Amino acid sequence: MNAMNHAITAIALKKKFDYVPLAGLLISVQLMELLWIAFNWLGIESISVESEVHTIADIHLTHMPYSHSIASAVLLAGVAYIGFRRAGLAIGLGILSHLVLDLTTHVPDIAVVWFGWDLELGTGIYGLPLVAFTVETVYGLAIWRWVRGGIGLLVAIVVFQLGTLSAHVTWISGFEAGLAGHPGMLATGVAIQIAVTLPLVWWLGRRASVPSGSAASPSGSRRAAPRQSARTPVQSVPVPTSRESVQMACRSRF
């Protein structure tokens, strides 16, 4: 799943866990990707590409068991759950969301454990670039609709999706064409995407992530309910008329 879709997943989590800062959720949903970038720069994990790169189907994430394995995701989520106390559940779910979204789109390149088991998982959608583009676009729009995002967030999602179109069709040449012979550039390209999308989604998503049930005043505080008067209502006492007063006086005399 692309960088924008991972980022907007944080807004969906914020809608559920409104007490957790959006910035923390944004880091959590991209933590596995940040590790992948670092491990590729350090030579711990690797990428390979075809001699000519036209679409994402020509890019192969050949070795990434430490950043993108089920064992790593579960371990990181568990540490977050224990370490962040009240926010731990939300942070842990953010980390796991990255794994789930990648399993939904990647070819089988996500390991179960770090070593000793060659099984790798993935639906294979990235092997069908146009299908992958459709799935990612629908997901982005669905999240925007669910969080009731503003026009700015919608524009950002659509522009980013269209910006990745060249990686899904053969008749448009983009950044991916330069990866031929230089596969390591992919990690740098993804790092740039994250550096752009995280602060952008944080800025555009703050309004969308406010829980719909809270009635906030312009200053940001909740409006206090109007106080009801605690005074006991005073009952009116009927005042006798002059005729009634005369009759009462006569009765008292006789």
Helical proportion? 40-55%
Number of DSSP helical runs: 9
Major β-sheet profile: 2 strands, antiparallel
The rounded distance between the terminal residues' Cα atoms is 104 Å
Which spans have pLDDT < 50 for at least 5 consecutive residues? 212-230
- β-sheet strand percentage: 5-15%
* Mean pLDDT level: 87
Spatial strand arrangement across the major sheet: 1-2
Along the chain, the helix and strand elements come as: HHHEEHHEEHHHH
Shape: globular
Number of strands: 4
How many domains? The number is: 1
Structural class: mainly alpha
Walk me through what this model shows.
- The protein has 254 residues and is mainly alpha-helical.
- The protein has one domain.
- The chain is 53% helix and 5% strand.
- The strands form 2 sheets. Strands 1-2 form a two-stranded antiparallel sheet. A two-stranded antiparallel ribbon has the order 3-4.
- The relative contact order is 0.16.
- About 7% of the residues have low confidence.
